[in-house]
Write a sequence for this structure.
């Protein structure tokens, strides 16, 4: 039924998209979601081109013939605009159930074609109480796997070239996207991948925004070369054979500049110059004391700072300078968020990064010891728990930070503990 309906409306919609006068005064009626099959067709927000209704969630499931993949191209995009698309948005998924999200979109900018890895795609549109536009109109088509074209991101690459995150270099990459590049060199050649610029949200374990690189043509933990984030470009990466698979994922929070990388092909038996094959980051092996937890006895102790920066440096898991930007009172403790000025000892501390701004959350076990105030700068030394959370107790070293102390801290970074 759906296939027949769309075969009737297809020519009309194509003429509308190209600016031609329609041959009929009738308009298609777009419902809230539905199941769509066949080699091509159109989907649109409820009531398009009229303003879409508030407080709705519509789901479209697209299935094309086996052996093909789904390519979706937006002809119209007019939703409430927001940098992180928190209010009204369209989500595109690879598959119908528990699929990888390919992207989240809002505003009026139309992305390039989004392509699945199999023959199914799910499109979800959500609107809040306030609407702000005519919604979307999109065309889907069954294409062959690895077929070329103007994709939003990712794709099959078999000639030396460049790969980059969406929006590069004009603005930060968007939240909530997944891009996958499959690079294939000729037989008996390997792939060299080098990054010119690299800036993703920073996290010690790259749990949020990250880029992962795999030997072969798919994401497989066994074949993973490395998982990368932060603002330091990875060392040059070399494939074991003629294929590499690169996957970039951003979550729905902080974003950053992104990356641009260049790849080329080399004979398999050629001498590799530069850094050796990049391996997955490992957890730092620096020994650390067990983080303290709150106790009434601990917080009843007299609050006096003892020792010096030098005497506390080696016994601390982390050493930072930062500005206290927020302090949330809990039952017995304080959750303090610091905007980081500098990191002198990182250990396993969980650090969030967006662009050039870094921050970290630290639990102060006793509300009044040490007593910290929002807006002031501090030197903070403390322990780290198993989740990477900074912990500060009355025994740790915390003091107001002044510029003259910066030289003392810089010298300490050369100390071998």
């Amino acid at each position: 039924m759906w296939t027949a309906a769309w075969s009737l409306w297809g020519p009309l919609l194509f003429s509308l998209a190209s600016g031609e006068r329609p041959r009929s005064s009738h308009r298609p009626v777009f419902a809230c979601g539905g199941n769509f099959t066949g080699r091509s067709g159109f989907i649109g927000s409820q009531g398009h081109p009229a303003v879409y209704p508030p407080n709705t969630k519509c789901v479209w499931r697209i299935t094309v013939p086996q052996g093909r993949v789904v390519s979706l191209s937006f002809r119209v995009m007019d939703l409430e605009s927001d940098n992180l698309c928190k209010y009204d948005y369209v989500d595109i998924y690879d598959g119908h159930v528990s699929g990888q999200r390919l992207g989240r979109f809002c505003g009026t900018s139309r992305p390039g074609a989004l392509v699945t890895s199999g023959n199914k795609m799910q499109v979800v549109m959500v609107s809040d109480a306030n609407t702000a536009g005519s919604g979307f109109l999109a065309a889907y088509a069954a294409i062959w796997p690895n077929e070329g074209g103007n994709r939003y991101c990712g794709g099959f690459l078999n000639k030396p070239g460049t790969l980059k995150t969406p929006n590069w270099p004009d603005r930060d990459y968007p939240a909530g996207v997944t891009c996958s590049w499959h690079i294939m060199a000729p037989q008996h050649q390997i792939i060299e991948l080098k990054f010119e610029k690299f800036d993703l949200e920073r996290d010690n374990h790259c749990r949020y925004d990250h880029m992962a690189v795999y030997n072969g043509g798919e994401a497989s933990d066994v074949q993973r070369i490395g998982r990368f984030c932060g603002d330091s470009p990875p060392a040059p990466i070399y494939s074991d054979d003629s294929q590499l698979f690169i996957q970039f994922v951003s979550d729905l929070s902080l974003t950053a500049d992104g990356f641009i990388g260049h790849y080329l092909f080399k004979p398999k038996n050629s001498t590799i110059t530069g850094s050796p094959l990049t391996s997955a980051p490992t957890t730092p092996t620096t020994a650390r004391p067990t983080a303290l937890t709150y106790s009434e006895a601990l917080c009843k102790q007299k609050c006096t700072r003892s020792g010096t920066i030098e005497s506390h440096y080696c016994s601390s898991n982390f050493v930072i300078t930062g500005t206290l930007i927020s302090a949330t009172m809990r039952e017995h403790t304080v959750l303090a968020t610091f905007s980081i000025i500098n990191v002198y000892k990182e250990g396993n501390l969980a650090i969030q990064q967006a662009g050039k701004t870094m921050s970290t959350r630290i639990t102060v076990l006793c509300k009044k010891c040490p007593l910290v105030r929002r807006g002031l700068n501090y030197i903070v030394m403390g322990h780290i728990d198993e989740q990477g959370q900074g912990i500060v107790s009355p025994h740790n070293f915390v003091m107001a930070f002044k510029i003259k102390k910066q030289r003392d801290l810089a010298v300490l970074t050369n100390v071998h503990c």
